[in-house]
Amino acid sequence: MPANKKYLNPSFHQRFAKITAGFIGGFLITSLLFLIFALLTDHVAILITLKFAGFIVWCTLMILPFLFENGWKAWAFYFIALLVLGATFYFLKSTSPELLSAL
User: Whose CA is closest to 92, among 35, 53, 45?
Assistant: First the structure.
């Protein structure tokens, strides 16, 4: 049974925004999330976990933009998430090793 035409978005820009947000933005968010976990815990175990759990997280983040009405809002959401995760990573990376060992 074919899809109902009223639910399909004919705009190329919206499709492009959603696909790139899911693919590129989801990958960057997944990478930053696991880098933060690697700073806080044993980095070897986290990198091994990234092989399996990272794929699941990335797939979830690839599907999420298609729930948005507007693809550029999905990019905005992912950009804000990237800024928060990037600032967290930068803060944790720049702190002293004594603070990281206390966590």
Answer: 35
Main-chain dihedrals φ then ψ at residue 94, nearest 5 degrees: -85, -10
pLDDT of residue 49: 82
Closest CA to 85 of 27, 36, 25: 36
Looking up tokens 């109902």 gives 4
Tokens 């399996």, located at residue: 52
Q: How far is CA 80 from CA 5, 73, 75, 90, 103, in A?
A: 32, 11, 9, 15, 26
Helices 71-94/26-40 angle, 10° precision: 20
Phi/psi for 8 (5° steps) reads -90, 140
Provide the sign of the torsion angle of the four alpha carbons 89, 16, 14, 63, taken in this order.
negative
Cβ count within 10 A of residue 8: 10
- Tell me if the pTM is above 0.85: no
